[in-house]
Structure formats: structure tokens, C-alpha cells
Design a protein that fits this description.
It is built from 22 helices and ten strands. By secondary structure, the protein is an alpha/beta fold. Helix 3 runs antiparallel to helix 5, helix 7 packs antiparallel against helix 11 and helix 8 packs across helix 13. The longest helix has 45 residues. The mean pLDDT is 82.
């Protein structure tokens, strides 16, 4: 059970949050606060001007019959000067506050993305994409929202202090009454924001939950529609949205109760001050003009009093959003890097590993005591039953994960000793699940690198993609839509392969990266890779005999260990498990061919009947 935080702790954490933001952009904050101070001083000056005008113009003219000639112009000019002064303060305050908030928000989002891209995949595996999107958007916005009203709140605090000082100079009794009202109102605001702080945190959590459900519904639209589950998904999202709605309503109802109490204080205070003020005038302690000045100041500080309350509430709400941002920024599962730089070498890499062990979760073993030696410049097929550890070994070779035990090396260099992004200059990984960006074909192949067009086309040709790309409306300049939805699965896989080949890696890892491609096309691609003269050692996670027989060597994996390595013919003779697996592949392929023939014959038999019909 968590302990409720004290009001002082919430205020202290809120102060640290604001101070951290201000330290990054102090000039913007100073401009905004200076504008707020100018505005506050303008308000106090306007009260003084109104009071002087009452005593020196209005009362003499109305009560004593003095001619206004020569008295009106100075008063009008004074009022105009104060109005210009206040306007200048408003412009400075809003400009500085706007720049401070929006620049800080951009900084936070950039920092979030940068930090997350440095984290290991083990961390991402435990996260919800929808929740991470909510943190980057909703929580980042809410966490920095306090910066918008903060300068105005600072100016309001200065105005309240100045008001108390001015009223005290006019009459200590009225000042004491005003001061007590301000203290009580602030205490109510502090208590209200503290009482609802945990509710604010729950609102932010529910926003992330709603975003998660929406993301899953959109991302799985194909599955939802194919299985006719539109109504189910709509209802699932509706439940999440209603939970968020109910919580927001609860919070807003409680906040409105507190705020309604606070907003009654200025009116009540004004009535009490006017009542007491008339008594003070009768006693000769103050003049009517001075009471008008006090009343005018009280009428103006009703908004600042409310604003200070809003700042306190916004501070609590921003702190709730920021803590979710902080949870991501505090994640420390960073991928460690060393000092090594990539080699400028035109030969394939030698890949090795000793005593490799790995499991995705604690206590799980996917690979254990695995030994590996892949000769340079060869095409090597990794073969094994489902869940034998082939794909896991592939991602370890690309250092998308690190082994729990043992070492993997490239030409004798530990993969963990490479500097950030340097290993990717020598190793390219293509998975079965292809991700494409909402960009042109060329943009998806180069991914921001400056690569000559002839090299892009050559990579596409080797990947078997140049043919269909040329038939697209704008060729390599065709936009393919988000995730490449306008392309088939095989086309997307070939683009991903071209993306890897254009970098001319020394080690190319294909994790069933041509599974959506026809077997004949896959075989053609692999032949092309063997004879292309690329500076690559190619490791293929293979499931088809047509791919396996094209490899120079085969690595057979069982239960997370390499149990045999050699040529295809050699393994057929000395690895019974490998031979059984190949026979199973052959039987499956034969069954598929037979099924295709039966469908062809069935269509041929139906055709005459359809013609007669």
C-alpha cells in the first residue's frame, strides 16, 4: 500500500520540476517573469492613479464645484501611460511563457525518443506501444503544461504582495483583513491540489491505457476485420474511454468544489473591506480616494487569486504527467558500447562464439553452451525445428540482444566492444517481419543515407525488387504508404533485403527474410547473393530445401545448441535429426504441390459447367 504524499512533498517535487525546466531556458523564463512583474506593477499603478483621480478630480468637481479645466488631461494621460505599460508586460509575459513551454515540450519529446532508442529490446518487450505513445504525447504535454500559467502566476503573486503592501501603507487594519483572506484561499487551494494529486496520476494512467487499446485496434485492423470483431473492439475501446471519462469527471467535480470556495473569497473580502472602510472614513483614518484605491485593487486581484489556485492545481496535474515521463527517462537498461570502430574491409567477416547462453526471461533457457564458427565469405544456412533457437541466435549475432553468458565475436572482436552504430556498418539484419516507413521506395532503401542511384538499383536488383519497383507509378520515387500497406508481403521483404544490401555489410543475416517470396524467386535471390561479389558472409535462417541446398555450409541446431555443421550432403549422412527435418520439409512441400494441382484440376472441371451456365 502506497503512502499518501504530504502537501509539502508535492510542492517540493513540483518546484524541482519547474526549476529543472527553467535552468534549461532561463532567458525565456526571465522575459516572461519580467513581463508579469511589469503587468503587476501596472495594476498597482492604475489603482494609485484611480485613487488620485478620485481625490483630485472627481470629488472636487462633484462635491466642491471646482472646474475640471486643466485637471482632466493629466488624469487621462496617466491612465493611458499605465495602460501601455500593462500592455507591454502582457506581450513580454505571453511571448516568454509560450517559448518556454513549447521549446521545453519539444526538448522533452526529443529526449524521450533519444533515450528509448538507446534502451535494449528487453525493455521494449515489457512495454505497451500505445502507452509509450501516450507518454511521448499526452504526458509530455501535461508535464510541461505548468510552464504556461507559471509566469502569470508569478506576476499574480507579486501583485498580491504589492497589494498587501499598498493597502498596509493606506490602512493596516484593512491590510490585515485582506491578508487573512489571501492566506485562507491559498490554503484551500493547496489542500485541494494535494488531495487530488493521486487522482491526477490515475487519470494519466487511464489515458495511457486508452491509447494502448486504440493503438492495438488500429494496428490490428486487418485481423479485426478479417474475424468480424469490429463490434468487440469498439466495445473494448468504449470501456476504456468510459473509465477515463468517469475518473476525469470525478476529479473535475472535486476540483470545482474547491475552486468555487476559493472564488468566493474576493467578493466576500471586498464586502468586508468596504464595510470596514466606511467606518475608517468616518473615523478619519483614510480618505474616500484611498478606500476607492483599496476597493479597485481588490476587484483586480480576484483574477490573480484564482490564477494562483490554477497554478497550484496545474502543478499537481503536471507533476502527475511528468512522473510517467520520468519513469521512461529513468529506465537504465541501456545498451553498453565500447570504443571500436567498423573496419573498412571488402571481405566477408568471420563469425564465432563460445559458450553462448541466452533466455528472454529470467529462468528461461533458449540457447545454452552454444559454440559457433562461421567461415568468412560463405553462405551459411541455419536449420532446425521450430523453437530450436535459430531466430534467437540470429538476433544475437546482430546484437539486437546480448547473450546472458559467453561471447560472440566478429573477426575476433567482441560485439559489445563496438561503438554506438558502428556494428551496423558491418552487420545487416533482415527479419521475417518487415517494417517500412511512410516514404518513397528510395527513402525506404537508403533510410537517410546518401547513396548513388546506381547502387540503390543494384541492391534492388539483387533483392529481386527492381522489376516490381519499375512498374510502380513513379518508380523509386513512389510513396508506399505507412508500413508499406500498398505492397504485398513478398515485395515488402524484398525492399527490406535491398535496404540491407545497399549498405554492403560484411555480415548479412536473413531471419526467414524471404518467407513471403515464391520458392523460385527465393532461390534466384540466394544464387544472386552467392555470385554478386558482395563483401559479405551470409547467414540464412532457412526452412525450404531449395534455400538450404544453395548454401555453402549448413548449421543444424537442436534445443539451443549447434549439433552439426558442414555441407548439406554431409549433414544428411551424419545428422539423423537433420535428415528427418529435411524429409518433413519435402513432405510438406509435396503436399502443397498436390493441393495446388487439385485446385487447378477442380477449376478446369468447373469451367465447362460455368460456360454452359
Amino acid at each position: 500500500m502506497t503512502t499518501r504524499e504530504s502537501p509539502l512533498q508535492v510542492l517540493r517535487d513540483g518546484y524541482r520540476l519547474v526549476a529543472g525546466f527553467v535552468r534549461v531556458h532561463p532567458v525565456s523564463f526571465l522575459v516572461a517573469v519580467s513581463g508579469a512583474a511589469i503587468f503587476a506593477s501596472g495594476v498597482i499603478l492604475s489603482a494609485w492613479v484611480i485613487g488620485r483621480a478620485t481625490d483630485q478630480l472627481i470629488i472636487p468637481v462633484l462635491d466642491q464645484g471646482v472646474s475640471p479645466s486643466g485637471l482632466v488631461l493629466p488624469v487621462v494621460l496617466s491612465i493611458l501611460a499605465v495602460a501601455v505599460w500593462k500592455a507591454a508586460g502582457i506581450v513580454l509575459r505571453r511571448t516568454g511563457a509560450g517559448w518556454l513551454q513549447f521549446q521545453t515540450r519539444a526538448d522533452v519529446r526529443k529526449k524521450l525518443i533519444s533515450h528509448q532508442l538507446r534502451l535494449g529490446l528487453s525493455w521494449f518487450r515489457r512495454q505497451s506501444v500505445g502507452d509509450l505513445l501516450a507518454v511521448s504525447e499526452t504526458d509530455a504535454s501535461q508535464g510541461t503544461f505548468i510552464l504556461a500559467p507559471l509566469p502569470f502566476g508569478t506576476g499574480a503573486a507579486l501583485l498580491l504582495v504589492g497589494t498587501i503592501v499598498v493597502i498596509f501603507a493606506l490602512d493596516p487594519i484593512l491590510a490585515l483583513l485582506t491578508f487573512v483572506a489571501l492566506v485562507v484561499a491559498t490554503a484551500v487551494d493547496v489542500r485541494g491540489s494535494w488531495k487530488l494529486f493521486e487522482a491526477f496520476q490515475e487519470v494519466q494512467r487511464l489515458r495511457g491505457e486508452t491509447s494502448t487499446v486504440a493503438h492495438e485496434s488500429f494496428d490490428g485492423a486487418l485481423t479485426v476485420k478479417a474475424l468480424g470483431r469490429e463490434d468487440f473492439e469498439t466495445e473494448r475501446f468504449s470501456r476504456a474511454a468510459h473509465r477515463l471519462r468517469d475518473k476525469v469527471i470525478t476529479v473535475e467535480r472535486a476540483a470545482a468544489t474547491y475552486r468555487s470556495v476559493v472564488e468566493s473569497f474576493p467578493a466576500v473580502t471586498t464586502v468586508l473591506v468596504l464595510t470596514l472602510g466606511t467606518m475608517r472614513i468616518a473615523a478619519g483614518a483614510i480618505t474616500p480616494g484611498e478606500l476607492v484605491s483599496v476597493a479597485y485593487l481588490l476587484s483586480l486581484i480576484s483574477v490573480p487569486m484564482r490564477l494562483i489556485g490554477y497554478v497550484l492545481w496545474d502543478l499537481a496535474e503536471s507533476l502527475a504527467g511528468w512522473r510517467r515521463v520520468r519513469e521512461v527517462l529513468d529506465a537504465d537498461e541501456l545498451v553498453e558500447h565500447g570504443p571500436l570502430r567498423a573496419l573498412e574491409d571488402d571481405s566477408g567477416a568471420r563469425v564465432g562464439g563460445e559458450d553462448i547462453g541466452f533466455g528472454y526471461d529470467e529462468g528461461e533457457t533458449v540457447i545454452s553452451e552454444l559454440e559457433l564458427d562461421v567461415p568468412p565469405g560463405k553462405v551459411v544456412a541455419m536449420v532446425g525445428r521450430t523453437a530450436s533457437g535459430k531466430s534467437t541466435l540470429a538476433v544475437l549475432l546482430a546484437r539486437l540482444w546480448d547473450p546472458s553468458t559467453g561471447i560472440i565475436h566478429l573477426d575476433g572482436r567482441d560485439l559489445r566492444s563496438f561503438a554506438r552504430s558502428e556494428l551496423a556498418r558491418e552487420v545487416a539484419f533482415v527479419s521475417q517481419e518487415t517494417f517500412l516507413f511512410d516514404d518513397t521506395v528510395r527513402g525506404n532503401i537508403t533510410l537517410g543515407l546518401t547513396i548513388p542511384d546506381d547502387e540503390v538499383r543494384e541492391a534492388a536488383r539483387l533483392a529481386g525488387a527492381d522489376g516490381f519497383i519499375s512498374q510502380l507509378p513513379a518508380g523509386y520515387d513512389t510513396r508506399i504508404g505507412e508500413r508499406g500497406t500498398s505492397l504485398s508481403g513478398g515485395q515488402r521483404q524484398r525492399l527490406a533485403l535491398a535496404r540491407a544490401l545497399v549498405r554492403r555489410p560484411r555480415l548479412l543475416i536473413l531471419d526467414d527474410a524471404t518467407s513471403a517470396v515464391d520458392p523460385s524467386v527465393e532461390a534466384e535471390i540466394l544464387r544472386g547473393l552467392r555470385h554478386a561479389g558482395l563483401p559479405s558472409t551470409v547467414i540464412v535462417v532457412a526452412y525450404r530445401r531449395s534455400s538450404i541446398v544453395l548454401a555453402d555450409e549448413v548449421i543444424y541446431i537442436e534445443d539451443g545448441r549447434v549439433v552439426a555443421q558442414g555441407s548439406h550432403r554431409d549433414l544428411l549422412e551424419r545428422a539423423p535429426g537433420y535428415a528427418r527435418l529435411l524429409r518433413a520439409y519435402d513432405e510438406d512441400a509435396a503436399a502443397r504441390r498436390q493441393e495446388a494441382r487439385e485446385r487447378t484440376v477442380d477449376r478446369a472441371h468447373r469451367a465447362p459447367d460455368e460456360v454452359r451456365t
